[in-house]
Design brief:
Length: about 160
């Protein structure tokens, strides 16, 4: 089973793709979708376009998306919510089953501690996937962690 993990953001969206095969996890790829337009609506359009390219490249069977958690900055929270909406709609239009996870659920699954530091999550993601080179940026690490979490929480 191939799982796409997505870490939504207002200007950078992390993605990670893993294959779960015979209780083994294999990293297929990771990266980010960068939104650098001055027009937020153009960013939303570009997000859909880039996400479709990723889906066509890796052909995932399902997707995991991080749930929006409380943000101090209301403007940022709104932008991330709008981006998340585009992501969810794009995944649904591609007929991918979607599971959503809070940051704490992802940290708990990957590191066995729901309040793990970013460095702990990074080390565990690299360990679980057998990746030697550094995974950058943090958004991609988070997306791979979401994909790992989704691959272990299969709901029919």
């Amino acid at each position: 089973m191939i799982v796409l993990g997505i870490d939504p953001g207002s200007t950078r969206i992390g993605y990670g793709v893993v294959r779960h095969e015979d209780s083994q996890l294999i990293c297929l790829g990771w990266g980010t979708i960068e939104n650098k337009n001055r027009d937020h609506l153009l960013d939303l359009r570009d997000t859909e376009r880039e996400l479709i390219k990723i889906i066509r490249k890796y052909k995932p069977d399902r997707a995991g998306v991080e749930k929006l958690f409380f943000a101090k900055n209301q403007k940022t929270a709104m932008a991330v919510s709008e981006t998340r909406g585009v992501i969810l709609l794009t995944l649904a239009k591609q007929s991918l089953p979607i599971q959503e996870f809070t940051p704490m659920e992802v940290k708990q699954m990957v590191s066995s501690y729901g309040k793990a530091e970013k460095s702990q999550v990074r080390r565990m993601v690299q360990f679980l996937l057998g990746v030697r080179e550094p995974i950058r940026p943090d958004d991609a690490v988070d997306a791979l962690a979401i994909a790992i979490c989704c691959s272990h929480n299969i709901i029919p």
